[in-house]
Prior knowledge:
Elements: H1 6-39, H2 53-64, H3 71-105, H4 107-112
Amino acid sequence: MFHVDCRVLGMLLCCSGRKDDHTKTIERELHNERKILRRQVKILLLGSGESGKSTFIKQMNIIHGAGEFTADEVRAYRQQIYQVFVSFRMFPLLSLNDKVSNLWMAIVVISVYK
């Protein structure tokens, strides 16, 4: 009892074909995005202040980033990187200084050098 209009049916088929192409395009884009996301590595850096988290990220940006830092960024970060480097280099020396001081306080060492 239903009457089907060929023009309407033809339009539906035509629209259906376009929709399939659009769906395939979207699915292809989603597939490509999933491939990109699978390659991404996400890192959570934990640590106290001045422990080098920002410096690590900046160094990774220099090594693996899309582009290098601008001259202004280099000037801004240079001092901070030097301070972190010096503080990490000085820590063992300061620790050693305390140990040597404690060693000179030992009774055995004092008695030997009297």
